[in-house]
Structures are given as C-alpha cells and as structure tokens.
Design brief:
Length: 589
C-alpha cells in the first residue's frame, strides 16, 4: 500500500493540507462541549439568584451561545474544506494510479498479458484501484482526525472525572479484542471476493465481445445461465465477506451502549455525591460519544487499510511485472530492408510443449511468400516472432540481417505491418482508423492505400465517405470490408515487411487476386508474407512454406510443391473439387 503512495506526489500538498484542516475541525468540535458545560453551570447558578444576577447570567448565556455558533461554523468550514481538498487528493491519486497501470500495461508483451488475463487486468484497474483510492481518501481525512479526537477527548474526560474515565480502560481493550477476532477473517474473505470479480469480468467480456456469435447460434439462454452462475457466485462471495462485518457491527454497538450505560450510572452517582456537576456531566457525555466513535473509526481505518492491502498487492503485481520483451542496452533504430531469416527457431507458449520446432528458412527483401498448413500447424505463431510479439525459446530470427533482439521494439514494429487473424477496428471514422497506420497521412494517401486494398470503391459509396462512423469494433461494415480496411491501414505505415495473417479469408477470390496484384505493383520493395487457407491466395507467390506440426514440411513454388509435397497436393486437389473444409478451415494457431 505504501509503495503506491508515489502516485500521490502531484497531490501531496492537498494530502498535507487536508489533515491540518481536520485537526482544526477537531479543535473547534471539542470546544463546543466545554461551552455547553458553562451554559449549564450558569443556568444552575441563577436558579436561586436575584434579578440582577439572572439578567447578567442571561447575557452570559447569549455570549456562550455566540461562541458555540462561531465554533460550529469554524468546525463546519474546516470540515467542508477538508472534504474538498481530500477529494482532490483521493481522486487525483486514483487517476494517477490508473494512468500508471495503463502505461505499464502498454509495455507488456503478449506473454505478460497472457499471464494475468485481460479480465483480471480490467478488475485491477477498476475495482482494485477504487478500493485503494477510497482507503487513501479515508486515511487522509480520518487518520489524523480520529486519533486526535480520541486522545484529546479522553484527556478532557479524565480531567473532569477520573472515575468516569476508568470505564474506557475496560471498554476500549474489549472492543480491540472483538475487532482482532473478526478482522483477519474479513480480510481473508475479501481477498477471495476479488478473485471472483476477475471471473465475473471474464464472463462479461467474453459475452459482449462475441455477442454476434451468441446470437447466431441462438445461445442467449445458455449465456444467461452462465452469467447467472457467475453473478450468483460473486454475490455469494460478497455476502460471505460482508457477513463477518455484519456480525461484528452489532457486537461493537452493544459494547458502545454498555459503555454509555456504565458512564451514566457512575456519573449519576458522582452528581449525587456532589463530586460532579450537571454541566460537567453534559460535557463528559458528549466526549464519551466522541471517544467511542473516534476509536471505532480508527479501528475501521486500520481494518480498511488491511483489506485494501489485498487490492494494493494485486495492483503492485502489475506495476512490478517486468516486460518480457524490451529494448537492448544499445538498440539499433533502423531496419535496413525486409529480408527475414529463421535459424533453428523453437518456441512454446508458457510452460507448454514446443509449438515451433527447429524451423529454418530465408526470405529475400521484396519477395512475396505464402504460408500454408493445417489448423494448429503454427502458421500465426511463426509470423508473430518477426515483430517480437513473442520471443523465441531457441534459435534466432533475423530481420534486415540482424537479430530482432538487437532492434528497439518501436523501430522494429514500425518496419513491420501485421494484419492479424482477428481484424480489429476502433470506434471512430474510417479516416481515424486508417490513420492508426500513419497519423500524418494525407487524404490522397488514404485513398491510395484503400485503392491497393481494393477498399476505395465501397468507402466512397458511403454517404460520408472517409468520415463514415464505424461504430464500436467496426460493426457498420462487413467482414470482408473490415479486412480490406485493416490491410489499407497496414499499408499506410509504408512497412519493410507486410504480414497478412489469413486477412483475405472473407473476400471472394477475384478481390483477393486484385489485392495481391496491387501489392506486387505498388509495394515491390516490401516483403509480403501471406498466410492463407486457399491455394489460389498463394499460388503466385515467389515461395510457399508448408508447415506441419510446427515444422517445415517443404518450401517451393506452386509448381514445385504440386510435384513433391503430398500435403500441398492434397489441399490443392481438395479445393479443386470444391471441398473447402479439408481440415484447414477455422483459422490458425
């Protein structure tokens, strides 16, 4: 928890002023019972006095009333200003912490994200940050106020009546024991609850991300049932965590009222024995409430702090996570050309078995290369090693004659444009999405990229053209249109290497052919790698790599592979007969 306080540096002035204002509120609040006691004593003294004394006493009462009003207004002013200043400090701390998390997450490689899961990262950035933020706000506003109120009120109470004050010597330790019993159990249950939030968010994210698939397969009822199970599981965990707090609260309130009763009994006896007057009793009674409430609030702050430790630990795990892929000490900032070489490369996801095994091949700059293979043959896994989305487990990947680990990650990825299997567009217009490839791209450059990707005709058919809003995730365009826009966006980077990972699967063969012809014509110096399921998409490539079980089965031209590769020949013949399934449908690993 304390390690996260560095994110409050910008707001440390507010965090410093807030406790000072709270101390001011406490001082003025503690002065009010003293004035009340003076008023009661004045009234008592005037009961048997003559008219002149009574007149003077009434004047004094007005004076005391004025003091009370001033103290109350000062207390209100300090408390209100402290609330305002504390809110700025607390909300600012939360915003700064979220910003720090986002900046850290942006440095993560795919493997780092895989380790946490997307849903867990969302929970940590929302639920966990809110818990830590609220605890920080409580600490800023109450950490000084409650203890100071407790100690000062207790001292004043002892000064007025040591006998009455002895009640607290028994009551306060008992309250501590009760809290010591309940707090560890509560903390353990709240930690378990946070894990349930991860599972719940994962369920929600999966449902909303794939809502079209849910509708297409008429699985709404199933998803409702799955959501209900996840929601009920979370609710049960929350109830289980809150139950211990619910049980503890009545016990603490009982102890409070028993303490008040004991104070009343002892104070009444002291008044009867003339060792305590009614005015002092009034003040002591007020102080008693302040002592008990401040004590409970202090304990609550500590309990909240320990519970927030669970959230702080989860946030700290993200902030302390070291990106697996980062720049070398003296990175190379320029990729000379688009040549690629794999030397005895092996790779695995996490602790699993190798999905790429001793792969070696070379691609010259400017060549168009096709990659084919059955589902699970690691076609996507191989190309993800080129821009260092993952790092190799063994062997080397060379781009432009250098190991990819020698380049700065930014400059390497700037030189490689990759259209992933899952085409992603963002909320905004077509132009805004295309400029992800080049934020400075002119309208003419947008048109040219769309022309190469065979997207210009449908873009210009929209009433708003390039200013057409795509909606969230590009819901306003078809699958084939989305693929072509993603290709155009990749081309705007003017890359040394262009990777199309099954990126024309949703377009017809004629459109596919036009895109490949345009790529050859307009990007002759760019190395083009096409992962495809259709033979027609790679038949005119300079070389075709055939993968089988994470290994290279063969490399050659279309004609060469038809002569010697059984895998390629079987795919070709199956597709010639119209059997497009042939175990290669459904995407790559």
């Amino acid at each position: 928890m304390f390690k996260l306080l560095k994110y409050a540096d910008k707001y440390k002035v507010y965090a410093f002023i807030c406790p000072l204002l709270m101390i001011g509120e406490v001082i003025f609040e503690l002065l009010i019972p003293q004035v009340m006691a003076d008023i009661v004593e004045t009234i008592q003294l005037t009961e048997t006095a003559n008219a002149a004394v009574q007149s003077a006493a009434i004047h004094n009462i007005y004076v005391y009333g004025g003091k009370m009003l001033i103290f109350a207004l000062c207390s209100l002013f300090c408390g209100s200003l402290a609330a305002r200043v504390g809110a700025v400090a607390g909300m600012g701390f939360g915003a700064s912490l979220r910003r720090g998390l986002m900046e850290k997450m942006q440095t993560f490689s795919f493997s780092n994200v895989d380790r946490f899961s997307t849903a867990s990262l969302i929970t940590r950035m929302t639920t966990d940050v809110n818990t830590v933020q609220n605890t920080f706000l409580m600490l800023v506003r109450g950490f000084f106020r409650a203890p100071i109120m407790l100690v000062t009120a207790l001292v004043l109470c002892i000064k007025m009546s040591p006998e009455v004050a002895r009640v607290f010597a028994v009551a306060l330790p008992v309250i501590v024991v009760v809290l010591a019993i309940f707090a560890p159990i509560a903390i353990k249950r709240f930690r378990a609850m946070l894990k349930k939030f991860d599972n719940f968010n994962a369920s929600i994210q999966e449902n909303f991300t794939n809502i079209r698939v849910v509708k297409a397969f008429v699985r709404t009822d199933y998803e409702k049932k799955k959501f209900k199970e996840s929601n009920d599981d979370l609710m049960g965990s929350v109830i289980h965590a809150e139950k211990i707090m619910i049980m503890g609260e009545p016990a603490l309130m009982l102890l409070m009222y028993l303490t008040i009763m004991a104070i009343v009994v002892i104070a009444t006896k002291s008044i009867a024995e003339m060792t305590l007057d009614v005015g002092q009793f009034t003040a002591i009674f007020t102080y008693a409430f302040q002592i008990l409430m401040s004590f409970l609030f202090t304990i609550m702050i500590l309990a909240q702090f320990f519970m927030a430790e669970a959230s702080a630990k989860r946030i700290g795990e993200v902030l302390e996570e070291e990106p697996e892929i980062k720049d070398p000490e003296n990175p190379v900032n320029e990729v000379p050309d688009g040549s690629i070489e794999f030397k005895d490369v092996s790779f695995r996801y996490g602790e699993g078995a190798d999905v790429i095994k001793d792969v070696s091949f070379k691609i010259n700059s400017g060549e168009m290369i096709g990659i084919m293979g059955a589902t699970g043959s690691s076609k996507s896994s191989i190309v993800q090693l080129i821009p260092r989305l993952y790092d190799t487990g063994a062997g080397e990947v060379l781009v432009g004659g250098r190991n990819v680990r020698e380049y700065s990650v930014y400059h390497l990825r700037e030189a490689v444009s990759m259209v992933l299997q899952k085409n992603v567009l963002f909320s905004g217009t077509i132009a805004e999405n295309l400029r992800w490839g080049n934020k400075e791209a002119t309208d003419e450059e947008l048109k040219k990229a769309c022309e190469i990707a065979d997207a210009l005709s449908f873009v210009e058919s929209f009433p708003d053209g390039f200013n057409t809003d795509l909606g969230q995730g590009g819901v306003n365009v078809s699958g084939g249109q989305k693929q072509r826009l993603c290709i155009a966006r990749a081309l705007l980077k003017n890359p040394k290497i262009l990777i199309l990972d099954d990126s024309t699967s949703a377009v017809d063969t004629a459109t596919d052919a036009r895109i490949r012809a345009a790529l050859r014509k307009y990007t002759p110096s760019t190395t083009k790698i096409i992962i495809a399921q259709r033979v027609s998409s790679v038949s005119d490539c300079d070389k075709i790599i055939i993968l089988d079980g994470g290994k290279i089965s063969d490399i050659g031209t279309h004609e060469e592979l038809l002569q010697r590769s059984e895998i390629y020949k079987d795919i070709y013949e199956a597709q010639q007969k119209g059997c497009d399934d042939f175990d290669i449908q459904g995407g790559a690993l």
